[in-house]
Amino acid sequence: MLIKLAGATVYDPANNIEGEVRDIYIRDDRIVSAPEAGETIHKTYSLNDKIIMAGAIDLHTHIGGGKVNIARTMLPEDQRGSHRERTDLTRSGGGHAAPSTLSAGYRYAEMGYTSCFEPAILPVNARQAHMEMADTPMLDTGGYAMLGNDDLLLQMMAEGAEQQTINDYVGWILKASQCIGIKVVNPGGINAFKFNQRALDVDDLHSHYQISPRDIVRNLSRALSELSVAHPLHVHASNLGVPGNYLSTLATMDAAEGFPIHLTHIQFHSYGTEGDRHFSSAAAAIAEAVNGRANITIDVGQIMFGQTVTVSGDVMAQHANHHHAHPNKWTCMDIECDAGCGVVPFRYRDKNFVNALQWAIGLELFLMVDDPWRIFLTTDHPNGAPFTSYPHLIKLLMDRSFRNDMLSQINPDAAAASQLQSLEREYSLYEIAIMTRAAPARILGMTDRGQLGPGAMADIAVYHPGGDPEKMFERPMLVFKAGQPIVEEGRISQPVRGKTQVVRPEFDEAIEKRIKPWFDRYHTTAMENFIISDDEMAEGIGSPINIHPCGLNP
Amino acid sequence: MWNKSIDQTINSVTCPGCGLSCDDLSITFAGDQLRSLVNGCEIARSFYETALDHSDPTPLLNGSPVTLDQALAACTTHLEQSNSSLFSGLATDVNGMRGILELADLCGATLDHMNGDAMFRNLRVLQDNGWFTTTFSEARNRADLVVLIGRQWLDRFPRLVERVLNPQDALFVQSKQRKIVILGPWTEESLPEDLASLNPQLIPLEMDAVADAIALVRGVIAGKPVDPNRIGKQTGELLISLANQLQQANYSVISWSAAEFDLPHAELSILGLVELVKALNEKRRSAALPLAGTLADITSNQVTTWQLGYPLRTRLQRGYPEHDPILNRWQGLISRGEVDLLVWISALSSQALPPDCEIPTIVLAHPGMRFKSLPTVYIPVGIPGVDHHGHWYRSDGVCPLPLNKLRRSKLPSVADLTNLLSRQLQTASGVSARDLQC
C-alpha cells in the first residue's frame, strides 16, 4: 500500500524542514522516499494549504498504573458530566482529569498524538501500568521505572556498592519492568517518609540509610549514562511545591555532576520566598541555569485553572498537601518496599495568588528557556491540568496578545509579581513541532519517531491552518498511525492498538544473585513473578514490545 | 515464564485461592492428579483438588448437552433479546474481565461482582473520604504494631500470620518486637496456636461494637475527654492503652476484612478505622491494610475501573457508563425486576452458584459446578491459573501476578467465550467494528 500526502506545508525539525511544501509518501507503516516513476500510488490525499507534522509525543503523562486507578475510584464525580458514548467504532468511557484508558487513547489521537509515556511506573506494579496502557488504544506507549526509593537500591548504596553493581541493577529493572527509562521521584524521600521523615532536601541524610538525595541522583544518572540508555534520568526533584525549592532544584542539577538529567514538571520546583506572601517566581534563576547547562532538559508541568486531580509517587509531598484537597478527600499508599503514591484532588483558581503565580511561572519558564530542544510541553497530566488543555497552552505560547489578555484576568498581585507581561517571545509552529515531536523522540532515543524522513514510522498529523492555534491543534484534519488513517476531522475513523516502547541495555545477569535472595527473604512475591517477559507483554498483557537501540543518544 | 512448558513440578505458582495470592507454591503432578503441594494452605489445596477433579463437562442448554457452538448461539439470542442484562459473579482473571467489559458495552449491561456488598463497604469510604493504605511486603518489613479487627481474617487469609505477621526475616522490625493487638469476637482459649505464639493482646468485642471502640481510640488521640465506662470499663481501658500504643508506634498497621462487617451501615465502622489511620499520620506513621481479593473481586474491579472510569456497580445501558454503588447492587436489580437476563461468571469456584431467579440465566463457570437448579445455558470454562494463563490482583490492589497454566485443557477461557460472543453480536447487528478489542 503506497499513499501520497500531496502538497502540504511540512514542519519537520528533525530534518531541518521549516514550512516547506513537500509531498510525503507512506509505504505500509513507514515513510518512504518518492517512488520511482510509474509505480502505482494507491491513494493520494490532496493537502494543499494544510500543515503536516509528525504525530505528537507526550513524554510525561500519567495515563496508567495504580495511582490513576485510585483517582478514578475515588472521584466518580470526575466521570459524570464528561462521558463518552459508545459508537460503532469506539467503546464508551469518560472522565475529565482521570479519564478511562479507552477515552484517553481516543482523545489523545483526536489531538494528533501518537505516542505517550507514563512517567511513574513502580516496578512491582509495572504489569498494571502496561495492562492499562495496552487498553489505551490508538497510541504507542512506554514508561519510566521508578528507582531511588526502593529499599534494595538504598541498601546497596548504604553498603557502598560499586557503580557497576548499580548499573547492573538498573539494567535489570529496565528489562524486568519493560520500561524505556528510569525515573526518580523525591530521591530517597518517599522511603524516608516511611521512617516518618517529613522533608528531605538534597543534602539531608536519610535517617536509616544515611545517604542523601544527591547521592541517589548522581549514582542513577551515571548508571544510565554508562548503560548508554538514551533517556536521561527523569527527576522529580526534592521539595515539590515548597516555597524556596528552586535552591533544591539547582542543587539537583549539580548533583548529576554533568551526566544528562531531565527535570520534570519543573514549574512545581521553581518557587522563591520573596514578597509579602513569601511565595515568588524563581523562573528566571531556573531558566538561566538550564540555558547554561547542556546536560539539563526539562518539561514544564504547566498548570491551568480548574478542577483536576494530582497523582504522584511523592507520598511525602502529597501527604503534606492533603489539607488543600478539593473536594476534601485524599488517598496515600506505601507500596511494597518499592515506593508509594498519593492522590489529592485539586482546583486551581485564577483569583488565588499562589495558583495564579504558578500559572505565570510555568509560562515564564517556557518563554525564558532558549532552546526548544531542551524544554517539553507538558501539564504533568493530570497534575497541572488534563492533557486536553494542550491546544490552549500552545495558543498561550504562540500568541502574546492572547497571553496578556489571560494575564489581565488572574489575581492582580500575582500578575504584578510576574515578569510575564514583559516577555515578548512568541513560539513559532516550527518550535512547537520541536517541543512536541522532534525533541521528545530524540530524548527518548526513538530515532524513527517524531520526524517525517524516509524510514520513519508513519505517525503523522495533518492540520487545517488558521489564525487560532488552539482550534488548529484541537482538531487535526487527519492522523496516521503506522501508516493507517485513524482520525479524520477530529473523530476516530479506525481504532488501532499500539506497542510498548522499551530499551534493553546490556548488563550482567549475575545481578540476580543479589536480587533473588532479597526477594526470598523480604518480599511477598517471587522474583520470577516480578519479571515481565516479552511473551507475556505480547500474549498476556496485550501490548507487544518494540526495542529501541541504546548508545545512539546525540 | 509465559510460555513455560508444562513440567511435572511447577514452582513459583500463584494461588488465586484468596487475596493473599501466595506465589511461592510448588505443585507436582502425577498424570492429571495433584501429587504434592508445597506452601499451599487448605484453601489452596481445596482449590487445586477441585480444579483437577472433574471430567470435561459439555455445555448445557435447558439442561441438555449441546455443542459449544449451539450454546454460544443460544447466548447470542438471549443477549440480543435482552433490554437490560446483568453481568455478575465476575470471578475471573484480567483478560476474562476485559472480554466481559467489551461484551457488556455492546449489550448495555450492568456489572457487579458477587462480593460487591463486601467490596463496597470499603469503596464507599474511599469514594467519600479516601484512605491511607499499605501493602503486604511493607507491613511485613516495617510494622511494629499490627491491629487486627475481627476474627474471620484468619480463615479467609490463612497464611497471613506466616507471610506478613511473623515472617522469618524482616528488614526493619523483628517479629518478636512486633506487637499484635486483636479486636474482635475472640476469647483467649479460641486463639489458634500459631496466633497465640505471637502473644497478641486481645480486646474481645463483637463486630457491631467496633465503631464505638474505634471512636473511643480516636477520641484519646484527638485529646478529647473519653469515658471508658461507656463501652465497659475493662474494654475501655484496654482501648485507651491501645490508643497510647498507636501514638508511640513507628509504623502501625490496621487490618480488617470488609466481608466480616456484615451489619447495617458497615461503611461507617470502616470510616472510623480509616480516619484513625489518617489522624495517626499527622505525627507518626500508620497505614491500613484492608484484606480482600477473594474470587477476583479486586481483579474485576481494577479492570472495570480503568476501562470504564468507574468501579463496578456501573451500568452501560444508555451507551455510556453510569455508576451507582447502591442502586446497581446485583441482588437489588434482580429482586426489583430491573433486569431481564443474568450472565453469571464464576471461573474460579465451583461453589459460587448463581442465584435462583426467574429470568433467563447464562452461566460461564467452573467445570466442577454442581447446580441446584439448572440455568438456561451453562458453558464450562477453563480455570485461570490451572487451565490457562492469566493475571490476578492481590488484596492490596498492587502487584498483579501472573497465573500459570498447569495442564493442557480444551476448556475455553472466559476471555475466549466473551470475545466470541462480542464478535457474534457485532456481526449479527451489522456493527462494523474491526477485529479489535478496543
How is this fold's topology laid out?
The complex is a heterodimer of chains A (554) and B (438).
Chain A: E1 2-12, E2 17-27, E3 30-32, E4 43-46, E5 51-54, E6 56-58, H1 66-74, H2 76-79, E7 83-84, E8 93-94, H3 101-110, E9 113-121, H4 126-134, E10 140-146, H5 151-158, H6 163-177, E11 181-185, H7 189-194, H8 213-226, E12 233-236, H9 246-255, E13 261-263, E14 271-272, E15 280-281, H10 283-292, E16 296-299, E17 306-312, H11 315-320, E18 331-335, E19 339-348, H12 353-368, E20 375-376, H13 390-398, H14 400-407, H15 412-417, H16 429-443, E21 460-463, H17 469-474, E22 478-481, E23 484-488, E24 491-492, E25 500-503, H18 512-522, H19 527-530, H20 534-541, E26 545-548
Parallel strand pairs in A: 1-4, 1-5, 6-9, 9-10, 10-11, 11-12, 12-13, 13-16, 16-20, 25-26
Antiparallel strand pairs in A: 1-2, 2-3, 5-21, 7-8, 14-15, 17-19, 18-19, 21-22, 22-23, 23-24
Helix pairs in contact in A: 6-8, 10-12
Chain B: E1 9-13, E2 25-30, E3 33-38, H1 42-52, E4 60-61, E5 64-65, H2 68-81, E6 85-91, H3 94-107, E7 110-111, H4 116-129, E8 132-133, H5 136-142, E9 145-149, H6 153-156, H7 160-165, E10 179-184, H8 193-196, E11 201-204, H9 210-221, H10 233-248, E12 251-257, H11 266-280, E13 285-291, H12 297-308, E14 314-315, E15 322-323, H13 330-335, E16 341-346, E17 361-365, E18 377-380, E19 390-392, E20 401-403, H14 414-428
Parallel strand pairs in B: 6-7, 6-16, 9-10, 9-12, 10-11, 12-13, 16-17, 17-18
Antiparallel strand pairs in B: 1-2, 2-3, 4-5, 4-18, 7-14, 14-15, 19-20
Helix pairs in contact in B: 2-14, 3-12, 3-14, 4-11, 9-10, 9-11
